[in-house]
Amino acid sequence: METGSIVVALIALAIGFAIGAGVLYYLDHQRANGRLKLAEQEAQSLQQQAQIQAQEVQRRASEQSKQVVDEANESALRRRRDLDREDERMQRRREDLDNRFERMEQREQALNKRQSRLDKQQLDLTKLEEERAIELQRIAQMTTDEAKAELMQLAEQEARNDVARIIRQVEAEAKEEAENRAREVISMTVQRLASEHVAEIAVSVINLPSDEMKGRIIGRNGRNIRAFEMAAGVDVIVDDTPEAITISSFDPIRREVAKRSMGKLVVDGRIHPARIEKLIEDSRAEVDAIIRQEGERAAYEVGVPGLHPEIIKLLGRLKFRSSYGQNMHAHAIESAQIAGMIAAELGADVMIAKAGGLLHDIGKAIDHEVEGTHAQIGAEIAKRYGLHPRVVNAIASHHHEVEQEYVESYIVEAADAISGARPGARRESLESYVRRVRTLEEIANSFDGVEQSYALQAGREVRIIVRPDVVDDLKALQLSRDIARKIEESMQYPGQIKVQVIRETRAVEFAR
Question: How many other C-beta atoms are found inside a 10 Å radius of the C-beta of residue 303?
């Protein structure tokens, strides 16, 4: 019984499940059909919207394409109008070129006709020129080449005269300008410089308290004076001059030592050979100290520092050296100051100019001991102690023994000449003066065409009279230069010498 109930219950349960499944299927089917209808409605709606949008896009595209076509047509129309205008302009230019070419052809034809006429006239002129030349040759009895040669000679002579005139004019202008500038610089330099006049001496006079001192100086059998002369290397002259003796020597250092020693002996009164030798040694030491002091003073006064001690010593020795009556130590300082002033005015190296002016005569300190000119000796000394090459050249070339390579060399030469040529600076012996004047006249007379020559103004000018039939104006100008150059090469002189060439023609006739 219970089993049948279970089966019935199971069957009922299965039938319930089947009915539930069918109901569920039906419900799902209905929901699916509803969703399908909704989807179909949405698709139709979307299709309608797409169609509307496509129609709108097609309409806009149609409008844009129409606008583009219209713009293209309008641009093409404008381009066509521009091309038409350009074509018209080109046509007008072509017509203008055709007209111009036609006018050029007409002008060329006219020029050809004119050239033909000119050629014909040229032929006629050539024939007339040949006929005229033949006639001129017949009249002048001279060929064309001869006439050309004569004309060339005349032209050359005129050119030479013109050249001589131009040279004189340019030289006069340059000389005037140079003289004005030089006069200005030199006058300024001399005004700024104050120097003493000096005199050259080769003897020293020692004043004595009485004539009895002469006997004591001479000593028994002359032993004192002999000892003094041997130790000092000088000559002692005892003559009739009252209360004075003379010490003579061409070496200024020995003379200064002897002068100081004799003065000490006279004051001391103890005169014998041992005392003489002692005092001479002391005086030598004093003079050496003075030499160093004077060398240092000159360098300091001029403003040339850093000189070698040996150069300082040689510079100090110039204190006791003179030339033509001018003290070389003072001359060196003066030349250095003048050179520095001129260099400052001309924009040159002032220190080089000062050093060259200070040391240009340094060779004179030992020129009596070493072979060679004082310029060569001084240059060797300067080179040996490492001075600047410009200073060496200034020393070596201040008497034109070597070529002057720098502007400072010319300045040193000018300063040396100014210092030596200023009034009262030097004096010259009669023998030297006569020799210089005679040499000037001999140099002038050695040139061809010189008729007479005269040395004037104490040998500072030489006046030369030339033969006018031998020397023309241009040769006179060249002759003055050649004579001046030969004087510079063969003579030594302070300052400058004026060379004046005179050419004149005199015509003399007698009235009867």
Answer: 14
Give the model's confidence band at 393: pLDDT under 50 very low, under 70 low, under 90 confident, else very high.
Answer: very high
DSSP 211: T
The answer, yes or no, to whether residue 364 has pLDDT greater than 50, is: yes
Looking at the fold, whether 244 and 298 belong to one and the same domain comes out as: yes
Residues 311 and 408 in one domain: yes
Alpha-carbon gap, residue 303 to 232, rounded angstroms: 35
Domain that holds residue 364: 307-427
Write the pLDDT tens digit of every residue in 279-322.
Answer: 889 888 988 899 899 889 888 888 888 888 998 988 888 888 87
Structural domains counted in the chain: 3
Q: What's 226's domain CATH number?
A: 3.30.1370.10
Residue 150 domain flag? no
Q: In terms of domains, do 256 and 332 share one?
A: no
Question: How far apart, in whole angstroms, are the C-alpha atoms of residue 44 and residue 38?
Answer: 10
Q: Which two tokens stand for residue 459?
A: 């040998």
Tens-digit pLDDT profile for residues 84-121 = 888 888 998 888 888 888 888 888 888 888 888 888 88
Name residue, tokens 């004579």: 483
The three-state DSSP-derived secondary structure of 268-326 is HCCCCHHHHHHHHHHHHHHHHHHHHHHHHHHHHHHCCCCCCHHHHHHHHHHHHCEECCE
